[in-house]
Amino acid sequence: MKRFMAMCLGLTMVFMLAGASLAGDITLNFTSLPSAQGWTYFLVGNSVSETSVFSVDGSVLYQNSMGVGYAGQGANGYAMTGVIDPHKPFTVWIRARVIDEEGDIATNSFGFCFGAHTETGGGFLIGIGKKMIQACSTTVCGLIIDSTTNNTVFHDYRLEYIPKVSNKLFVDNVLISEDVPLSYFIGLNRIYIGDGTGGTNARAEITYFKFSQRCDDIAVKPYTFTAGTPAKATEVNANFDTLYQQNNALNCQVQDLKAAFCKEHPTSDVCK
Question: Domains of the chain, with CATH numbers?
Answer without folding.
Answer: 2-212 (2.60.120.200), 233-271 (no CATH)
